Hints:
2 domains; 9 strands
Amino acid sequence: MVETHIKASKFLSWALRHAPGKIGLTLDPAGWASIEELLGCAARAGRRLDAGTIYEIVETDSKGRYELSPDLARIRAVYGHSVPVDLGLVPAEPPALLYHGTASQTVHSILRGGIIPGRRRYVHLSTTPGTARQVGARHGDPAVLAVEAGRMAADGLALYRMNDEIWMTDEVPARYIRPGEIDWG
């Protein structure tokens, strides 16, 4: 992704997941925004953005963060929201283990109280330790926790598959974390 697309993608992430109101953007209850309105709000906020760039970002985003409506008139972030949206998530059967990347200094509190979403709406889990390590590294020295996702689902906790790498859940109680399998990066 070229540098201008990286900046535009970060702007889209911020606007669609965290602060649509700060630029005057309205999301519908499911998180959808009109691309035309988004472009107008971006221009008023001093951001150069066009529909072609948005379509390219959606198509090439390796994390699958965005989706377009079938008529290509609307866009939404697929996960990672801190603003309330109803994504219409349907629980899915997860693999036996998923992984959570975090900063190493938070591990002890997580082992006591579980993993909670913090400022976001859901806890994010990764399908591989490597992906989880990348997430954890954004917050300092990374640690990767193994989460017994299959057991969570068997016990009635809902997990949602977002794409090939990302799963989400409301929270991960501490009893589903394997303390003997922590990778301290």
